[in-house]
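Budget justification, computational time. The allocation requested in the original proposal was used primarily to generate structure tokens for proteins on the priority list. As evidence of use, we reproduce two of the resulting records. The first is shown immediately below.
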Amino acid sequence: PFSRMVVLAASVVSKTGKALVSRQFVEMTRIRIEGLLAAFPKLVGTGKQHTYVETENVRYVYQPMETLYLLLITNKQSNILEDLDTLRLLSKVVPEYCQQMVDEDTVSKNAFDLIFAFDEIISLGHKENVTLQQVKTYTEMESHEERLHKMIIQSKINDTKDVMKRKASEIDKAKVEKKLESKGFGGMSALGGSGMGGMGGMGGMRGSSQAPAKASTGPKKGMVLGKTQKTNAFMEALKAEGEAVETDSRSKGPAAGAVAAAPGAFAPPAESVQISIEEKLVVALKKDGGLENMEVQGTMTLEIENEEDSFIRVHVEQGQNRGFQFKTHPNIDKSLHASEGILGLKDASRAFPAGSPLGILKWRMQTRDESAVPLSINCWPSVSGNECYVSIEYEATQEFDLHNVVIAIPMPGVRDAPNVSQIDGDFRFDPRKGVLEWEIELIDSSNKNGSMEFSIPVPDPDIIFPIEVAFSSKATLCDLKVATVVNSQDGTPAKYGLKTHMAVESFQVA
């Protein structure tokens, strides 16, 4: 049906054939394109150096991009040299719009930007004569009039917010004054029916005119204290609005001091330079024991708030990290990182971009060594009569703490909660999902091992698989630490904030 020499579609797919982004350049049904993309992983042979594969009707021209494939689907009459040139340009565009982090999350997040970029490169199935810089210029399409219009709109929004704050402040002041006046009149009405006691109350009012709420006497003293604290709170509110208010020195107890201190109790401002170290784990354990595969993917991200702090270099300390592969951002000086462990730009006179996070270092590790898994799970199910008895245990193999550990055991068809005879931690049963969740808030050196025993009225040990595991940690498997951050121009130390986090993307026992 596609007789012309054209590119039928440009796509980014996972290694299982899942389409993340796909742009068709000829009329094609969704079922047709999904079928072509799903068939692609089966056609790609392992260990081959070819960048294309053909079927009876179409040709796939592809390039691996870490855990994904960048793919062109063309008809067999298409010029493969031109297709390879198109693929080369697309392979530069994808990292550019994904902030150099080409994975499923970033591709999905920037899907529309990628589609617009694909449209600038390929038109009606044919490659346009454009460069990467031209593609960026065409897709951004910055307009001075649009920028000016947005500034005017933002100015109007800010003015409206100021008016709202001013009106709200006036309303609050009116409420405070009304309440204070009502309390003052209450004291005067008590004078009319209290004889000489009322005169004493009047004397109290004259002696301390700034505290009219204290006009009551006798048994009401306890209640008056509570009202005085409320009045003090109103006074402090007036002070916060910039009003000059005098208060009775006798009312300045610990509570009043706490109220006065509250407006200044703000959290300290975050540092302008923020470094984030994050790792994701993908683990597949065998239900009979042993590790099928574990993959670790990590990223060091740099985010700078103020432009004046963007002339920096990051000194890192790395352990042996056997099996780990490291990759720096294209603008980072690779030789400087390899020789001295310093992450800095190739051109020391340039500054890091401010205002958005930038991945400066990535690492990856894949292993089948079971001792490398931070948490091993062993399960022994057995059948007796019409019941299945299960004993499951965990063992932490690393020295760091694991937080919010959840081991989810599927129990399809089981409506009643299982009979749990022994458990280290807590459990929760969700009958709608048919899942038993074993929860351990923290695994540290005091509880590196734990177990749970339960039984279910189903004589089938296979229904409890696959077991899903989730946890997080403030440490990473990769031995990587930030030693210092210095100014790239004068070498002076720079202040920075650091966050380290490891989480599970997928952890199954099956």
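The second record produced under the same allocation is shown here.
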Amino acid sequence: MGCGSARLRPQGVLEPRGMVLNYMLGGCPLAIGNLWDVSDRDIDRFADCLLRRAVLPVLPPPTEAPPAAVAEPNKSLNFSEAVDQERSQNLVEGVAAARGAVRMKHLIGAAPVCFGIPVACI
């Protein structure tokens, strides 16, 4: 998710080159990266939203209670309530949904792209 990590650079009459293509050649089914430089805070918001929508719903619930639940014994935390209601296990759908989490949706939100086939976290 680094700045310009999915950018392809032209090589004259040859095919463009980029790090994301090396991942594809190495057998990675899906690579997510940015086409241009983005601000740290906005891309952190994007990554947080993407992980909450695509990765957290498939993780097992924590075995220990979080510190907030210990501080307030009358209030119990439900793991499913901690994750957003609209869940997506498909990473490509998660990327599309996370574009709205950034402040500059048309500049920073358009930078992350997916290369490869849609995969789901199982």
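A brief technical remark on that second record: The chain has a mean pLDDT of 78.
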